[in-house]
User: Which sequence fits this backbone?
């Protein structure tokens, strides 16, 4: 196995961050600030060596796709869009006001339940893991040695867990969480050993 570098980028500020609505599969656009943050991430990535030799894969939801689009303008990589790396599907809660969401969701058990769904038509943690795992296996085994992934907070936290060798059950104790616009970089050597160079770092100006 050849060495591989995988960078994960969480989409930048979206309208749902400012209007009190849930994200999930609600198809929100970036704010003006979010567009500038995405351009700054592009500049950060360019300084770190990202160029036209990289493969960029983005969620097809607008806020991720627009983040990827701004990065594209800086580093010159046309993104591929993949619905497998969308955010967790909240079913009836997608895009709803948080007040409505909290008032109508199925009560959450006190103990962590991997099969809990906030709404009957939503994804559980197990559902999300099972959706993302084939994508993870594909990027690990493909021939591309430099891969950039643009996605969402919960989806990326699951991919980060997979990258670091965690099982689904272990996420009950150990999990990753980063703010919008955060960047994580993983280096995989020829033996499959993984080093997290940084996790959920913010792009710095300059």
Assistant:
């Amino acid at each position: 196995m050849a060495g591989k570098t995988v960078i994960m980028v969480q989409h930048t500020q979206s309208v749902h961050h400012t209007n009190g609505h849930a994200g999930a599969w609600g198809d929100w656009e970036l704010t003006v600030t979010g567009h500038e943050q995405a351009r700054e991430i592009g500049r950060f990535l360019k300084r770190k060596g990202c160029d036209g030799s990289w493969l960029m894969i983005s969620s097809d939801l607008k806020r991720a796709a627009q983040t990827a689009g701004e990065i594209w303008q800086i580093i010159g990589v046309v993104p591929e869009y993949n619905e497998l790396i969308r955010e967790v599907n909240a079913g009836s809660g997608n895009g709803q006001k948080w007040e409505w969401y909290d008032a109508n969701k199925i009560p959450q058990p006190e103990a962590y339940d991997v099969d809990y769904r906030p709404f009957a038509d939503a994804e559980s943690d197990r559902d999300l893991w099972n959706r993302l795992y084939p994508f993870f296996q594909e990027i690990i085994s493909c021939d591309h040695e430099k891969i950039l992934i643009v996605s969402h907070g919960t989806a990326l936290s699951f991919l980060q867990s997979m990258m670091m060798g965690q099982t689904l059950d272990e996420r009950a104790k150990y999990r990753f969480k980063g703010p919008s616009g955060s960047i994580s970089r993983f280096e995989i050597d020829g033996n499959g050993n993984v080093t997290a160079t940084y996790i959920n770092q913010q792009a710095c100006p300059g």
